[in-house]
Amino acid sequence: MIFESHAHYDDKVFEEDRDMLLQSLQANGIDAVINVGAGIDSCKKTIELMDKYPFIYGAIGIHPSETGKLDEESFKWLKESCGHKKTVAVGEIGLDYHYEEPEHSVQKEWFERQLGLARDVKLPVIIHSRDSARDTLDIMKNLHAEDLGGVIHCFSYTKEIAREYLDMDFYFGIGGVITFKNAKKIKEAVEYIPIEKILLETDSPYLAPEPNRGKRNSSLNIPYIAEEIALLKGISYEEVVTVTHENAERLFRVR
Ligand code: NI
């Protein structure tokens, strides 16, 4: 069975058929999902989803693009929500320099504070890092993120950067981008990263793999991602599914 390590089923694009879609996952070979918070509202909806569906776990955290709205009161609420018995990670947190806002200093401050939160509540982290490879690594090394453990979600950097994360014993979330024709850099990185350090993810509703690129994504598309990883690593599809499931159980401490 497939472990989906990163989805956003709280998103409003699932409003019409969310329950039907989620109820269909197990029959399609997906037996665990981590719904990942991005803002305060999405964290609240994540908690509703983990309370409603036995196979859904949650990550609680604020995406770098949403950090401009954070304050002490909501940070306190985040910490409380990390105490939920099905919260398995702090995330997604990190840095995103693709857009101008929020200012880098604001993103860095809340990234550091949420790494500290993960340390306080003893949970691994789910890292979002876009166009910010060096700063992300510097902060993680300074704050000893290797003690926390975690995953670099939607890994999109080179194998040289991958090596630095491997040195910190981190995992790599691999999603739909791996199936894109022009994804040469990421394909090289996946060839290099040991299968024992890879997690399957979709980032639904975003980043649907080929042949569904551009459409609304869901965990039902994970087989396309697992097939591509199997091809790149010269192992069977079943091995990719089994090993990545064990990896996710180990990292997030769920069974
Ligand atoms: Ni995400």
List the defining traits of the structure above.
single chain; 255 residues; eight-stranded parallel sheet; 9 helices; binds nickel (II) ion
Mean pLDDT across all amino acids: 97
| Overall morphology | globular
The radius of gyration is 17 Å
What is the count of DSSP helices, taking H or I runs of 4+ residues? 9
Helix content: 40-55%
Tell me which ligands are bound.
nickel (II) ion
Main sheet: strands, sense, barrel: 8 strands, parallel
Unreliable runs: none
Distance between the termini: 12 Å
Order of helices and strands: EHEHEHEHEHEHEHEHH
Q: How much of the sequence is in beta strands?
A: 15-25%
By helix and strand content, what is the structural category?
Answer: alpha/beta
- How many beta strands in the DSSP annotation? 8
Strand order within the widest beta sheet: 1-2-3-4-5-6-7-8
What is the secondary structure topology, with strand pairs?
Elements: E1 2-7, H1 18-25, E2 30-36, H2 40-52, E3 56-60, H3 72-81, E4 87-96, H4 104-121, E5 125-130, H5 133-142, E6 150-152, H6 159-167, E7 171-174, H7 184-192, E8 198-200, H8 222-233, H9 237-252
Parallel strand pairs: 1-2, 2-3, 3-4, 4-5, 5-6, 6-7, 7-8
Helix pairs in contact: 8-9
The structure holds nickel (II) ion.
Nickel (II) ion binds at residues 6, 8, 36, 92, 203.
